[in-house]
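Example 3.2
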Amino acid sequence: MPQLPHKVHELSVGQLSARSGAAVSALHFYESKGLISSTRTAGNQRRYSRDALRRVAFVRAAQRVGIPLAVIRDALAELPDERTPTRTDWARLSEVWRSELDERISQLVELRDRLTDCIGCGCLSLEKCALSNPYDNLGEQGPGARRLRVDRGVKDPQGAQRRAGGGQRPGGPEADEEPDGPGRRTDGR
């Protein structure tokens, strides 16, 4: 791992990349999302202050545990004067994220434990499907594996109503379908 001389206060994007382990393209992306910032030299080259190393480490650690970039950006924006997160800041933010992480862990355990059981996908191919989901009744609740689906943070009241079993989005049920690769749809059309 390359070490930087203590007297170096500004880092090029290549130095920041080498020391942080983040690709140059990732650093540019983080900057475009407001997670880190740089100044420009007279030759229009990016220069990052040394504290960008801690911000990048903070971002990467939060990403590793599944925190979305928008949430990370909001957390960093709460710091006064866009300063580097301290140990206390990290402890406070990670405590806030702990319940979300616990929920994700619970969902993953449930997913793991149900993979060999009826998941409400509509295939009706397992013996237990006839008991757990007769005639694919779970299909009335919407597309996908209904027993594995978790809808968190629903902001769309019509979407919440649809997931609860009533109403559909404007455009009919096909409006919710996503392509399954180039030019293919999940509904077989």
